[in-house]
Amino acid sequence: MSKVPISEEQAQQMMSRQQAQQAQQEQYLEQKENLLRAYVSSEGRERLKRIEQVKAERAQQVEMYIIQAVQQGKMQPPVNDDMVREILGKLAGQEGEGKSNITIVRKRNADDDW
User: Segment Disordered: which positions (predicted)?
Assistant: First the structure.
């Protein structure tokens, strides 16, 4: 199989698309940080940063939960450390509901003691 070379124009279009996506991503992150600064107390933000170091996905879930809950009027800012922990527990409980437990049973040989 031979590779088809891309033209300079195509390369520029790809670069401009990538730059636009990167700019959009940066704008989204900046907006999210501004909302979190407005909605979450300093202690709550510290906890979110610590969670992010261990489980980035979990921290993002909690951040999005907080933003949506405040915007929908379900939660009043500032969200403190205790509320962040409560949300963590709630999300962990929801995650655990869908998981099943696996039990491993070892085969026994005739010479094993029961």
Answer: 1-26
The whole-model pTM stands at 0.70
Domains and CATH numbers, the chain: 27-95 (1.10.8.140)
Tokens representing residue 113 in the block? 């003691």
Tell me the chain's radius of gyration from C-alpha atoms: 24
pLDDT tens-digit series, residues 52-106: 999 999 999 999 999 999 999 999 999 999 999 999 999 988 876 555 567 777 7
Amino acid at 17: R
Residue 8 φ then ψ, to 5°? -65, -35
